[in-house]
Amino acid sequence: MNENIEKLIESCGVKLYDMESVTENGHKIFRVYITSKDGIDLEKCEKISKILSPIFDLNPPVSGHYYFEVSSPGIERNLKLPKHFKASIGEKVKIKLDNEESIKGTIQDADDDGVEVGEDNNLQKILYENIKKARTYFEW
Questions:
Q1: Secondary structure of residue 84 in the 3-state scheme
Q2: Which H or E element spans position 106?
Q3: Which domain holds residue 96?
Q4: Element (H or E) spanning 53, and its range?
Q5: How many beta carbons lie within 10 A of that of residue 126, not counting itself?
Q6: Are 42 and 21 spatial neighbours (Cβ–Cβ below 8 Å)?
Q7: Reported pTM
Q8: Most buried one in 27, 30, 83, 119, CB count within 10 A?
Q9: Rounded to whole angstroms, how far apart are CA atoms 94 and 129?
């Protein structure tokens, strides 16, 4: 189903970033995050929502009652897939490893195996398989 959803979203001129199911304040929410080179606005979110809603009415993405949202992943976003890391080169990131070690730095490079994080001559290559959680962050 994800491949079909991704193709449908891309036919609208935006890209699928991620999909997640979360529970917030006792409510189950299914979110679809989209991106675009020229940014995401309410109109693009509404367009994708109107296209996906009937599909999800027939084939719900999660069981039981849920709320459906379409959104931009935001300036501070989770990084899960190699494509997320590759698209975030040059951005600041916080990474929590499986061994609970935390790393902060700038993404210098990313490939299909891992990400290179650090500053100038102090770079660290981290394999994706060792990452528990990663998120970009913005310094205000």
A1: helix
A2: strand 102-110
A3: 82-136
A4: helix 42-58
A5: 22
A6: no
A7: 0.83
A8: 30
A9: 16
Does 76 reside within a domain? no
pLDDT for position 102:
94
Mean pLDDT of 8-29: 94
112 phi and psi angles, rounded to 5 deg: -75, -15
Cα gap 34→12, rounded to integer Å: 11
Evaluate whether 93 touches 117 at the Cβ level (below 8 Å).
Answer: yes
Domain stop point among 71, 94, 117:
71
Cα radius of gyration rounded to whole Å, the chain: 17
Task: Supply the mean pLDDT for the chain.
Answer: 94
23, part of any domain: yes
Q: What is the pLDDT of residues 116-130, one digit of tens each?
A: 999 878 889 999 999
Domain tally, the chain: 2
Say if strands 67-71 and 92-97 run parallel, antiparallel, or are unpaired. Answer: unpaired
Query: How much is the pLDDT for 22?
Result: 94
